[in-house]
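Supplementary Methods S3. Input chains for the assembly prediction are listed below.
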Amino acid sequence: MSTETLIASLFVFILASFAGFEVINKVPPTLHTPLMSGSNAISGISVLGALIIAGEASWNVTVILGLIAIVLATINVVGGFLVTDRMLQMFKKKEAKV
Amino acid sequence: MELRFTAIQLSYIVAMTLFFVGLKELGSPATARKGNTLASVGMLIAIVATLLEKQVLNYGMIFIAIALGSVLGAVMAYKVEMTDMPQMVGLLNGFGGAASAMVAVGEFWRYLAMSQNPPSSTTITALLGVLIGGVTFTGSVMAFAKLQGLITGAPVVFPAQKILNGLLLGGFLIGSIYICLHPFNSQIFLGLLLISLILGVTFVLPIGGGDMPVVISLLNSFSGLAGSAAGFVVNNNLLIIAGALVGASGIILTVIMCKAMNRSLANVLFAGFGSGESAGGGVAGGTVEGTVKSIDTEEGAMMLGYARSVVIVPGYGMAVAQAQHSVKELVDALESLGVDVKYAIHPVAGRMPGHMNVLLAEANVPYPQLYDMDDINPMFDTTDVALVIGANDVVNPAAKDDKNSPIYGMPILEVDRAKHTIVIKRGMSTGFAGVENDLFYKDKTMMLFGSAKDMVAKLASDVKQL
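Predicted structure tokens for the full assembly:
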């Protein structure tokens, strides 16, 4: 990565942080746990990086690290989204008739 | 510009949009489930797009890894008890952090394997990814172990702890400068990895179990920042953006949790709060007058059943006792008698932000019945009975009145303003902060001694007989 790309990426990072603050600031306390597990699933985005470094056809340290990272990040992504969904389906406005 | 590159980048833009819209929809209970689904679709698009990258050739192994991770993740998500949600989120944070650190290490190693000098920006961001990812990983594992009861939940403090942490950080800094100048020293690089893993452990050890809402939120933020750092390393904008988004969300929750305890982040992280040392001063600060009035469930049921309005204050003790279903039963019985029932939720009522709301939702309590602290406090004046179940510090009036109390200034649920208060508690022990609670000695307060689950179940059956 050249210094120019680094600077451009820093712009992206700072902007995204501010946008994130604005979007999330309004989440009511009732939803803080699902917000956390849902955003947690999004932090599994490092799976993209893992896919790229695990992509080489030959075996080497990088590929092995990448594959382990894919497993861990996928647990993060799949587990995070599913458990969030499981929680959110319990939030009801009116009492469900059992 | 190559077509494949354009298609991938456009897919990333779609994914990014879905993340933002999804998180925005997560902001309201009515649309939250849809929001989560949108974000997951965004993730799927991003993964598929990345698989199209031309350097991705190793499809067989990659699919096996994805399948393995998906199965493990799905099993965890469906097996976990709602009371164990903090551990689950803690563990997932750790996995995310570990994955990010591995991406950073892997990319750095690729340069070394090719005997090629990595650009200094790659080296710096890789080191940052290693540091944040490593701390997130072991820190989350420690938080998991504390919450799961594998190690003591009490703060573990030892002499020179802060000095050790300072030395570790200093060592990391010096090693990083060395690596920037001489990238080919893999031993030093691995040493730095080791330091960040140790830092995660020493960072969480001195923090008490009751402060876990802050730690989990902070680690959540770290897991996002680790993802961002990995994004800098492999030069991927979507990683940077999504990581920043999660970093921001974690920081917001951390600040909210600290405010709810009226403590600075530094105090939570470094004070060893709730350990013997700090608790000692607290007990001395609270001089307590008056006598404790104890009642039985029959009297309690009468008070509740003939009240017009009742506010239930659930605390962590209720969650530990798994009493939320009995509470719901009691509330149903009261409502059939025409009593107006509300729930008052303190921000740190559970072991993570919003935990109590999830537990009550699981017990089929409709969310409009749950009131946040700021909304419910003015209503206590017109409340006949406040029923406190397994909560202590968050209803301690000393936080308002006693300037010497260690919890002075912490926002509380003002149950002492209700006409009567019933407190269900095992005994007269102090809460997490180790502070005596004047509330228990007030004239209007009745104590119901016993386990939360038994007492609430008995109250429910006594109310039904009214």
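Chain A has a mean pLDDT of 90. Chain A touches chain B through 87 residues (CB under 8 Å).
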